Amino acid sequence: MLQEILSFFEQTPPVLGALYATLFTWGMTALGASFVFFFKTMNRAFLDGMLGFTGGVMVAASFWSLLAPGIEMSPGEGFVKVIPAAVGFGLGALFIFGLDKVLPHLHINFKKPEGVKTPWHRSTLLVLAITLHNIPEGLAVGVLFGGVAAGLPEASIAGAVVLAMGIGIQNFPEGVAVSMPMRRQGLSRWKSFMYGQSSAIVEPIAAVIGALAVTFFTPILPYALAFAAGAMIFVVVEEVIPETQQDKYTDIATLGFIGGFIVMMTLDVALG
After folding, report:
1. pLDDT tier at 148, thresholds 50, 70, 90
2. Most exposed of 22, 87, 173, 256 (fewest Cβ within 10 Å)?
3. What pLDDT is recorded for position 28?
């Protein structure tokens, strides 16, 4: 099965491959959001555990799929070799920091919105918060596919597909985490589902932009990989982890994080 998927992507132009891979991750978000058709409420312990799992996957992907290959393909030795990763990582974190300050959004389990003041409804702000999560994820997949297009030996189709699989797995609980609170606020099941799945629509867009950027400007690949990693780590520390610490299920969220890290690390090392 996996071999068939890999051979399909090997025969597909990389930019198109990035689009297909992130359509899958978007589909996984929609699958999670569809739970709203079957359940009215979701167990809080389960939700916190799933959000913790999401954080674990993102941290593992940041190192195994992005930072490590980025450092490996950088020229030079010692401090010189790590400069692209350090610069890219810092810029990625600053990029999401800037968006976090400007874009109005509301974190799951929080009451007070962040970003510039706006009259927008809570449901819109909640979707925007998850959309912030998804920008670096789409970018990460696109950048890896772009590296394949540029013909760099350190970037492989297998690595890009594995990253998309990991992000798809952790997008599932994100879909649940958006649609369920919408339902609790009194929205219809259909509206709750539409809000939930729409939070990931940015992933294919970010992936195509990332793939095209690296395809045309190959030397930026180590910076671009680290940029995506920095953005993902910022999201985990600033948003995902605090969201899981608002109730009494912090231990479950922590165990979820460990589980997510192990799953993504195993996928990347065994298959990537």
Report:
1. confident
2. 87
3. 93
Q: Which residue has the tokens 């030079």?
A: 76
Task: Pull the structure tokens for residue 110.
Answer: 């929080």
Residue 118 confidence class, pLDDT cut points 50, 70, 90:
low
Bridge partners for 105 per DSSP: 114
Residues 4-30, buried b or exposed e (16+ Cβ, 10 A)? ebbeebeebebbebbbbbbebbbbbbb
For residue 122, the 8-state DSSP code is: H
Separation of CA 47 from chain center: 17
- Model pLDDT, residue 250: 83
Q: What whole-number distance in Å separates Cα of residue 162 and Cα of residue 160?
A: 6
| 60 in Cβ contact with 265 (< 8 Å) | yes
Residue type at position 136: P
| Residue 144, token pair as written in the block | 């890896």
114 three-state secondary structure: strand
Closest CA to 28 of 104, 109, 141, 112: 141
The model scores a pTM over 0.70: yes
d(CA 202, CA 207): 9
Q: Taking the CB of residue 209, how many other CB atoms lie within 10 A of it?
A: 18
What's the gap between Cα 99 and its chain centre? 15
